[in-house]
Amino acid sequence: MAEKSGHGSILRSEALKKYILETSVYPRQHEQLKELTQASFDKYKIVSLMGVPQDEGQFLSMFLKIMNAKKTMEIGVFTGYSLLITALALPEDGKVIAIDPDKDAYEVGLPFIKKAGVEHKIQFVQSHAFPVLEKLLNEKEELGTFDFIFIDADKENYLKYHEIVLKLVKVGGVIGYDNTLWFGTVALSENDPMPPGLKALRRAVREINTFLANDPRIEMSQLSIGDGLTLCHRLY
Ligand SMILES: C[S@@+](CC[C@H](N)C(=O)[O-])C[C@H]1O[C@@H](n2cnc3c(N)ncnc32)[C@H](O)[C@@H]1O
């Protein structure tokens, strides 16, 4: 079932993707994650590939638990695959602020979030992220309090997000940026053939990658999982 959703990944071999999913992911995947994936595919077909790949989701889940994350934020929810991953990984009194202007997509995943019994951990905000972030920045008690912030939205704004979320995440907390390998196009040169949709944002993704690699305020690691996940650990 879940195979139908495809798998947004830079892995070149379909057989390898299938192997990873069938061996390590599907046997342990929460039933509601499977159902959300299917519902997302039924409604959005190929566009459902926007959801984080299931092996990346599995990694995020374990990572959140290892770091004992309790207060988190997600920018870019879509139908809520990574959101459900997060809500399941948080403790009972954990919270995730989830921001996306697209409430229709969120509502596709919502029945599965409810069925999984984790809706109480989610504060969904139907909005573009910047107004919400500006508001949080003005509330002094919010500064430096988030354990984890996951950014999976408008790539052209990742640099702007970085300056803001670095103030909201706590020292020792982590920011995750998704799609930092941009389907492999970051390693191509400007004139190489590539789909126009990817070409349009390739430069922005390369810029954030270079910026993060040189930012002394963080320790970082660019993981070649999914479409590239860069984890940034706030140092001060
Ligand atoms: C790649 S999808 C997110 C996938 C999601 N993390 C998942 O696992 O299913 C990107 C989402 O970002 C949202 N988005 C785009 N611009 C945004 C903005 N400025 N603020 C918040 N969300 C935004 C889109 O509406 C879209 O749902």
Provide structural commentary.
- The chain is α/β, with parallel strands linked by helices and 236 residues long.
- The chain has a single domain (2-234), classed as Rossmann fold (3-Layer(aba) Sandwich).
- The chain has eight helices and seven strands; from the N terminus they run αααβαβαβαβαβαββ.
- It has a seven-stranded mixed sheet, with helices on both faces.
- Helix 2 runs antiparallel to helix 5 and helix 6 packs parallel to helix 7 (158-168).
- The longest helix is centred in the C-terminal third of the chain and has 18 residues, at 196-213.
- S-adenosylmethionine (SAM) is lined by residues 50-52, 75-82, 99-102, 105, 128-129, 152-154.
- Pathway: Aromatic compound metabolism; phenylpropanoid biosynthesis.
Topology overview:
Blueprint: H1 14-25, H2 31-44, H3 54-66, E1 71-75, H4 81-89, E2 95-99, H5 103-115, E3 122-125, H6 129-138, E4 146-151, H7 158-168, E5 169-178, H8 196-213, E6 218-223, E7 229-234
Parallel strand pairs: 1-2, 1-4, 2-3, 4-5
Antiparallel strand pairs: 5-7, 6-7
Helix pairs in contact: 2-5, 3-4, 6-7
The chain binds S-adenosylmethionine.
S-adenosylmethionine binds at residues 50-52, 75-82, 99-102, 105, 128-129, 152-154.
